[in-house]
Structure formats: structure tokens, C-alpha cells
């Protein structure tokens, strides 16, 4: 069925200043009125009454509605306006920080307030809320952390678990945590916790059953017909195919019809954006009608917001995005979708207990969501860069992250929540016992848990849980207190926690490399990062210095902010904030203590193999050690593309590895090695 045409909705995400005067305030008023009219026209509005009745009557409700129907922005406002929040805060979780930020900005605008007052957001390393905040958008990971400090989630009257179909590991754990919290509150006579589970599409029965047969509310979607085209033959190079398709559309389609291209990850997207710009520049003149915007989770918030700005008249916007644009953000003007059919996902290797980032095929559910983005505002077109029979062979839905990722981090959080019987935890989909045992084994190797009758966190484990980081990274920080180099390790960890601070524009690659050369350390990427940090601090965080040295100023600033927050946690834990001066060895030792499980050894053949699984790996070309042949390294991450690459490397001594975990290496060492 054809849904009614949507109103003209080219809307700025960041509204005009809220304290404007003169012309500004007239515009504000007009904008406000326009937003109120738009609100009334959203599909969710007609379901308002029923939703409120259901949630009044029962404690849990499931809401299903296509992207753009108004779930995320409106439902919290309905609850607030009807007083159902009982003066407390409404939490709305999002799997991605960009969604939490942009949606809270939009809702603040609709409520005519500044972000951080009535409406706010809270994401890792950034809290934009205050005492006055009643509608709080937050990442699922943040709510999970809050539950550690307050298992009854007392400050909330309603928890909305949004984008439930994404089944991120944090959302899955939250399902169990909020369900338990609801039960506890009921038992103790505390006012009930209302739970709303929201999703674009999902296995409704599975969800309803899990939430004690909660009622399901279906919202009428707004979906126009979409013409789907498949590739005639399987494509060996989807990147190339996507560019060909894109320029074909650009040539033929009317201006103002925007294109959304789904690719897999940051580097691929940046390189595609570069190619698109170069191709459109190739003619005599630059094609000013093509505006290209990348979109991925690690992109700085400011750059992400560009995606949402209206396209100027006579131009066409091309958004090159990861699966972030599948359901979690609303982008106007999209008429064409190009789906490469792939997605970057974490894949767990049960032998090593580590995750590898790998490009894999999307599921049918994902392909449908991607296609759907072309028909939100009018009829659209979707080009699938795979054949119809390839589509037919796709998995029906995406396997929940909890069934395919390393569980160490989440186990640490569950233990910190006081849940020690993890095998019997109320998971919607239970990870297999082997994965749970292997995660606990890792935590044990890191010294975070004790295996007595009951599995318990050690003193060290409790401290590790205080950091919003991977347990290995927290362990590195905690090791630093014994080596008197906490200040340095905090700098390194902060720089590793933000997206790359090195800028490498394709057109000035040689110049960039020459400028960055002076920071490069033969000890590896961590010491290189530290060198950059020290020079940056030396010039007082200077923007011009960043430009001259091809360092991303904004990412540096974010890292400084992250550092400040990690330092505060250290102070709270009363860790000695000392500096090691010029001695870089202790920093590398600390990295080894956290990351001994990620070690690789150079072979006589000149290749590296991991010590955990003896799998061949290579040094990533972006590493400071790319042209070196160190005997032993540890790495922070494995990325599988044409080869399996190690990223963020540190040169280590085999004795340090052994000292960090003698039991582990005794077990791992092959019989024939000495
Ligand atoms: O959650 P759901 O996908 O159902 O919809 P929503 O995020 O609440 O969006 C409802 C409508 O609000 C969209 O169709 C957009 O018109 C508007 N919106 C926006 O303009 N900017 C945002 N950041 C979020 C929503
Ligand atoms: Mg939504």
C-alpha cells in the first residue's frame, strides 16, 4: 500500500541558536512551529494513545515501525508530556553514538531547549546531561555502565531499548539487566521500571516471548515503491562497481535526488570519497554539483553532521556510509541506494579468544533495510551490486553480536554488576558455554577473576571494570602504576581510543609522510603516538602545528578530553600519577602486560605468525614498523582484508611476554620450539 506523501521535510539538524534575537528569534519561532506540524504528521502520532494506554497498563511493550516513523524522537516526548515519567528520567539507548547525539539535538530543537537541559545525551567520554535532563539519549554501553553503579536504575522510570534489531552485545546484555531490574523493583515495592523495546524489524515472537509475552505495537510505515536492480554477474570488485553505478546515476538522474552508497569501513569510505572527488574533477572543470560526504562511527561529530545538512539547489549529495545509515539515522532526500552487499563485522576466533574485524556478506534483513532507505519520501531505486541468486543465498537475519564476539569485556561488566552465575544469566540468545568459558579464561589470565567455588572479580578486576575500555587496555593502565609511567600510558591509551590522529591526504601523501617521519619510533606505534603527544603539548596544542605536521587537530582535542576523563578515574582509584621521563621501555612493558595474548613472532621466512593460533599475519602499512622486521611484537587489533593485518604495534622482548603470563606461554609454546 502506498503511504501518504510526507510533508516537505528538509530540516536542519542543528537548529538556529536558541538564544537568538531579532530576526533569529522570528526564524526560531517559525522553525518551532514547523517542527510541531511535522511531529503531528509522523505515523507514530496516531498510535500515541494506544501506546500510552498499553505502557500504563503493562510494564513492557514492544514497538515495531520502519525507520522514520517517529519512534526514537517522539515516544520519549509522549511519555514526558503525559507525565508517565513520574518526574524521573527516561533513558533511550542507541547502539551508536552518532545516533544518540543527532537525535538528542533534534528532540531538543523540538522541545525548544538547548541540548543538556531537558533533553540530553550521554556517550562514552561525553556527558551532555544535567539535573534538569528528563529525556536522556545514551549509548547502550553507557546504560550498562550506569547499571554497575546502580543496579536498580533508580533515576529512571522508563528505559527504552532502541534499535533492538541491531542486537549489539551491549543491548543483548541490557535486555537481561533491565528485565532483572524490573523484577527486583517489583519485589522490593519500588515504583515499576517501564521497558519499551523498539525496532525497525525483528523477530517479534522471539522478543515478545523473552519479555514475558509483552504486547507488540505495529506502526504503519511510510514506504514508497522501490525499484530494485541486481548485478548481472557476481562482482569481483564492488568498490569499482559502486563508482561506475554512482556516476551512471549522477549522469542520468535529476539533480536534488541524493544517493546513499553503503560500503564497509572508514578507510574504504575515505578512499571512495577521494576517488569520487577525483573523478568528478577529471573533466575540465570541477563538478560543483556533486557533494560527497563520508559517514562512519569514528568520524568526528562535526563532520557527521554535514551529512544531514540540506543539499543546495541544483546539487546532488552522495553519502558514502557504513551500515550506520541502515536504520539509526534519518537522512533526507535519498532517492538512490547503492548496496555493496558487504559489512564489516567482528568475527570471533574461538582458538585465540580474539576478535578479527572482517568484511562479510550482509544478511537479507540488512539488505532490505538498505533498500528501504531509498523510498522514505518518494519512490526510489536501489542498485544491489550482487546477483539475485547471491541475494537468495544470504542469511535471513544477522547473527547477534553476542554469539560471534569475544565476551571478555561484557563478562567483566556482568561480574561487576554482581552477576557471577553467567552460565545461567537470562540471555535472549545464550552464547555457547565454550565462549563464556574462554572469556572467563582470558579474564583469569589478565588477573581479573578468581576461580573459587564462585567466580569473583579480584581487586584488580574491580579496578579494571572502572574503565570504559577493553579489559586488556584497562590492564595496561593498571600495570603502569607499578612501572611509574601512568602519565605516559594514559597519553598512549587516549590516542588509541580516538580515530587516527595522522592525516594522510592522497594528494599530499609524500609530504605528510615526510612531516610525520620525525615522530616515528622504531619501538612501534605506541611510542610514536607518545612522541606526537609530547610535541603537541610542547607547542600548547597548536592548530598550525597540527596542520604543518599532518596531525588531525580535532581528534587530538578529543584525545585530550578522553585523557582527562581516564585520569580522573585513576585519581578516584588512587593510582599514583607518575611519569617515567625518557624511559620508554616501561611503557612497552605495560603494553605487553595488557596485550600478551596479541603477540606475533617473526619466522625465518620473514613472515609473522601469531603466538596464540600460529596464524600468518602482516604488519599494517600504516604502522611505524611497516618496514622493520622486529622479532616479537604485540598488536592491538587484527584486520582482515586481502591479508590479516596487525594494527597498532609495539616492539617487545620475548622475556617480557613470558613474564607477563608464564602459564599462558607454557601452555601455548609448541613442543618443537625452545
Ligand atoms: O526512530 P524512527 O526511525 O522511527 O524515527 P525518528 O528517528 O524518530 O524520526 C522521525 C522523523 O524525525 C524523521 O522522519 C525526520 O523527519 C525527523 N528527524 C530529523 O529530521 N532529524 C533527526 N536527527 C531525527 C529525526
Ligand atoms: Mg529510530
Automatic annotation (TrEMBL):
Pfam families: DEAD, HA2_C, Helicase_C, OB_NTP_bind, WHD_HA2
Cross-referenced Gene3D superfamilies: 1.20.120.1080, P-loop containing nucleotide triphosphate hydrolases
Domain Helicase C-terminal, chain residue ranges per copy: 242-418
The UniProt record lists the keyword ATP-binding: yes
Domain of life, per lineage: Eukaryota
GO CC term (a single one): nucleolus
Domain Helicase ATP-binding: 52-220
GO molecular function: ATP binding; double-stranded RNA binding; hydrolase activity; RNA helicase activity
Coiled-coil segments: none
Signal peptide bounds: none
UniProt cross-references to InterPro entries, sorted A to Z: DEAD-box_helicase_OB_fold, DEAD/DEAH_box_helicase_dom, DNA/RNA_helicase_DEAH_CS, HA2_WH, Helicase-assoc_dom, Helicase_ATP-bd, Helicase_C-like, P-loop_NTPase
GO biological process, one term: positive regulation of transcription by RNA polymerase I
Keywords linked to the UniProt accession: ATP-binding, Helicase, Hydrolase, Nucleotide-binding
Catalytic activity: ATP + H2O = ADP + phosphate + H(+)
Top-tier EC class: hydrolase
Name used for this protein in its record: RNA helicase
Organism: Patella caerulea (Rayed Mediterranean limpet)
Amino acid at each position: 500500500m502506498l503511504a501518504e506523501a510526507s510533508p516537505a521535510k528538509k530540516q536542519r539538524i542543528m537548529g538556529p541558536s536558541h538564544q537568538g534575537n531579532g530576526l533569529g528569534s522570528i526564524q526560531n519561532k517559525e522553525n518551532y512551529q514547523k517542527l510541531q506540524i511535522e511531529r503531528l504528521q509522523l505515523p507514530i502520532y496516531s498510535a500515541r494513545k494506544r501506546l500510552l494506554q498499553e505502557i500504563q497498563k503493562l510494564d513492557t511493550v514492544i514497538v515495531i515501525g520502519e525507520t522514520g516513523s517517529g519512534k526514537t524522537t517522539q515516544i520519549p516526548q509522549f511519555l514526558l508530556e503525559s507525565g508517565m515519567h513520574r518526574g524521573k528520567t527516561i533513558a533511550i539507548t542507541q547502539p551508536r553514538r552518532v545516533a544518540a547525539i543527532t537525535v538528542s539535538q533534534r528532540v531538543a530543537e523540538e522541545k525548544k531547549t538547548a541540548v543538556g537541559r531537558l533533553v540530553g545525551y550521554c556517550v562514552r567520554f561525553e556527558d551532555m546531561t544535567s539535573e534538569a535532563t528528563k529525556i536522556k539519549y545514551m549509548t547502550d554501553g553507557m546504560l550498562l555502565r550506569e547499571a554497575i553503579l546502580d543496579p536498580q536504575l533508580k533515576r529512571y522510570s522508563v528505559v527504552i531499548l532502541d534499535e533492538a534489531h541491531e542486537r549489539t552485545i551491549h543491548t543483548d546484555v541490557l535486555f537481561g539487566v533491565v528485565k532483572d531490574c524490573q523484577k527486583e523493583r517489583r519485589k522490593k515495592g519500588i515504583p515499576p521500571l517501564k521497558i519499551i523495546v523498539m525496532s525497525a524489524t525483528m523477530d517479534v515472537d522471539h522478543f515478545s516471548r523473552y519479555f514475558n509475552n509483552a504486547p507488540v505495537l505495529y506502526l504503519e510505515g511510510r514506504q514508497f515503491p522501490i525499484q530494485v536492480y541486481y548485478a548481472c554477474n557476481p562482482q569481483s570488485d564492488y568498490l569499482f562497481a559502486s563508482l561506475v553505478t554512482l556516476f551512471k546515476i549522477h549522469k542520468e538522474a535529476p539533480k536534488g535526488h541524493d544517493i546513499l552508497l553503503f560500503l564497509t569501513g572508514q578507510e574504504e569510505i575515505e578512499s571512495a570519497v577521494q576517488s569520487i572527488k577525483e573523478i568528478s574533477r577529471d573533466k575540465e572543470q570541477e563538478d560543483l554539483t556533486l557533494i560527497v560526504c563520508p559517514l562512519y562511527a569514528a568520524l568526528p561529530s562535526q563532520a557527521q553532521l554535514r551529512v544531514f545538512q540540506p543539499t543546495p539547489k541544483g546539487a546532488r549529495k552522495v553519502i558514502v556510509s557504513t551500515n550506520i545509515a541502515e536504520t539509526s539515522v534519518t537522512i533526507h532526500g535519498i532517492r538512490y541506494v547503492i548496496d555493496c552487499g558487504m559489512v564489516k563485522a567482528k568475527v570471533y576466533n574461538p582458538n585465540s579468544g580474539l576478535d578479527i574485524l572482517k568484511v562479510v556478506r550482509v544478511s537479507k534483513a540488512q539488505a532490505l533495510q538498505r533498500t528501504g532507505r531509498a523510498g522514505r519520501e518518494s519512490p526510489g531505486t536501489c542498485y544491489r551490486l550482487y546477483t539475485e541468486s547471491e541475494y537468495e543465498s544470504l542469511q535471513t537475519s544477522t547473527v547477534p553480536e553476542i554469539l560471534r564476539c569475544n565476551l571478555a569485556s561484557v563478562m567483566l561488566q556482568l561480574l561487576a554488576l554482581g552477576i557471577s552465575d553467567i552460565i545461567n544469566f537470562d540471555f535472549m540468545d545464550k552464547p555457547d558455554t565454550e565462549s563464556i568459558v574462554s572469556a572467563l579464561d582470558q579474564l583469569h589470565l589478565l588477573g581479573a577473576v578468581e576461580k573459587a567455588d564462585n567466580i569473583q572479580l579480584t581487586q584488580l578486576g574491580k579496578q579494571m571494570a572502572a574503565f570504559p575500555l577493553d579489559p586488556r587496555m584497562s590492564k595496561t593502565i593498571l600495570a603502569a602504576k607499578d612501572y611509574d609511567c601512568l602519565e605516559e600510558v594514559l597519553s598512549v591509551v587516549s590516542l588509541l581510543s580516538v580515530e587516527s590522529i595522522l592525516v594522510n591526504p592522497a594528494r599530499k601523501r609524500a609530504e605528510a609522510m615526510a612531516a610525520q617521519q620525525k615522530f616515528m619510533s622504531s619501538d612501534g606505534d605506541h611510542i610514536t603516538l607518545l612522541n606526537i603527544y609530547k610535541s603537541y603539548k610542547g607547542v600548547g596544542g597548536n592548530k598550525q602545528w597540527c596542520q604543518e605536521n599532518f596531525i588531525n587537530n580535532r581528534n587530538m582535542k578529543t584525545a585530550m578530553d578522553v585523557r582527562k576523563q581516564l585520569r580522573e578515574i585513576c585519581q578516584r582509584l588512587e593510582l599514583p600519577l607518575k611519569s617515567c621521563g625518557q624511559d620508554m621501555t616501561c611503557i612497552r612493558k605495560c603494553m605487553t602486560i595488557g596485550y600478551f595474548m596479541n603477540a606475533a613472532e617473526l619466522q625465518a621466512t620473514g613472515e609473522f605468525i601469531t603466538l596464540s593460533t600460529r596464524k600468518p599475519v602482516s604488519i599494517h602499512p600504516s604502522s611505524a614498523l611497516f618496514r622493520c622486521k622486529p622479532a616479537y611484537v604485540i598488536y592491538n587489533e587484527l584486520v582482515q582484508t586481502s591479508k590479516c593485518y596487525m594494527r597498532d604495534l609495539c616492539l617487545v622482548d620475548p622475556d617480557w611476554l613470558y613474564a607477563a603470563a608464564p602459564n599462558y606461554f607454557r601452555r601455548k609454546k609448541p613442543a618443537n620450539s625452545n
